[in-house]
Specification:
CATH class: Mainly Beta
Shape: globular
Helix content: under 10%
Strand content: over 45%
CATH superfamily: Calycin beta-barrel core domain
Strand order of the largest sheet: 6-5-4-3-2-1-10-9-8-7
Structural class: mainly beta
CATH architecture: Beta Barrel
């Protein structure tokens, strides 16, 4: 397991409004055969945990929010619709994700994961962007 420094930038556009976030955090990178698994805590030391698995042209994002029993899992493969159901206090909710950009670039000791995807939850649609830059720590 390799320690890494991450710069996480995200944005969500919905109903003409844009929310943006950016933070730096320490995390880890682990090789599992052909896969690279990145794990890092949420912004401002929150107990949320995000895990990003990269394998070939597919990125799997798993977010475990503090106090939640189930993790949110999304499979991102460019131009391939992903559909799932999430359990909420009000019952099951259908979630559809359509990735328009899945780009992973790596050089010696650092890399970037760039994602853009449209999310539809019930009748609400949003455009999401996530850029994760990482650098190995010695």
């Amino acid at each position: 397991m390799q320690s890494i420094l991450l710069n996480v930038k995200g944005s969500m556009q919905q109903n003409g409004q844009t929310e943006e976030t950016e933070f730096f955090t320490l995390g880890s990178m682990q090789l599992q055969g052909e896969k690279k698994v990145f794990s890092y805590p949420g912004a401002m030391g929150s107990e949320d945990l995000t895990e990003i698995t990269v394998e070939n042209d597919t990125v799997i994002m798993k977010k475990q929010e503090s106090g939640a029993q189930d993790a949110a899992i999304v499979v991102l493969k460019e131009r391939k619709m992903y559909s799932s159901y999430y359990s909420t206090p009000l019952g099951l909710v259908n979630v559809e994700v359509y990735p328009t950009l899945v780009n992973v670039t790596e050089t010696e000791g650092k890399g970037e994961i760039e994602l853009e995807y449209i999310t539809r939850i019930a009748d609400t649609q949003s455009l999401n962007r996530l850029r994760v830059n990482y650098m190995e720590q010695n």
